[in-house]
Write a structure and sequence with these properties.
Elements: E1 16-19, E2 30-34, H1 47-56, E3 66-70, H2 79-89, E4 95-98, H3 101-113, E5 125-129, H4 138-148, E6 154-159, E7 162-168
């Protein structure tokens, strides 16, 4: 029996499916390994010195971390140097990439979101949750939009009580 002044939670009763990218956020510390510290005068990589460093360095300090390999100075670093670093880091890290922390986040979300089955959202009205506590990159929002758009009937951004329309599948026109 409904009361005359009863408050009805229309959000709770709606057919909206909330997709929260924070649920897919890879947990773990992110660090940058800057090869500039291995360069002579921050300009030149001396192979012998570099190989000695790589051999003697304690790589276990990167245990279970996500590592972005980069060079923050204008120097020519041979590709093999990054490859050598990757071989030493790989046994310890959760993931090692070449690039910035932003690139690292994009790679991590690319990997995680590639395991989503978008057909589970067939014909759904999906709200991609915004504003959270974790630093979800814009890349992840664009990627989930790309993945879900062919399947959903509509997509919104924000919170179920306050959304911004993003996509609505066009209605099929009747054949004449």
């Amino acid at each position: 029996m409904a009361y005359e002044n009863e408050i009805i939670n229309r959000v709770a009763n709606s057919p909206l499916v909330t997709f929260d990218l924070e649920d897919y956020y890879p947990q773990g510390e992110r660090v940058v390994y800057n090869i500039k510290d291995n360069l002579f005068q921050e300009m030149i990589l001396r192979e012998k010195d570099f190989r000695t460093f790589v051999k003697e360095h304690d790589w276990s300090q990167y245990q279970d971390k996500y590592v972005a390999l980069t060079c923050s100075v204008d120097a020519i670093v041979p590709t093999w140097a990054y490859m050598l670093l990757a071989t030493k880091l790989e046994p310890y890290t959760q993931r090692v990439i070449f690039g910035s922390l932003e690139t690292l986040e994009a790679v991590l979300f690319q990997e995680v979101l590639s395991h989503i089955d978008p057909t589970e959202f067939q014909d759904a009205k999906v709200v991609i949750k915004g504003c959270g506590n974790l630093p979800v990159p814009d890349f992840a929002y664009v990627e989930i939009t790309r993945l879900l758009q062919p399947y959903v009937s509509s997509m919104m951004y924000g919170e179920p009580c306050s959304t911004v329309p993003i996509y609505k599948r066009p209605k099929k026109s009747a054949l004449k």
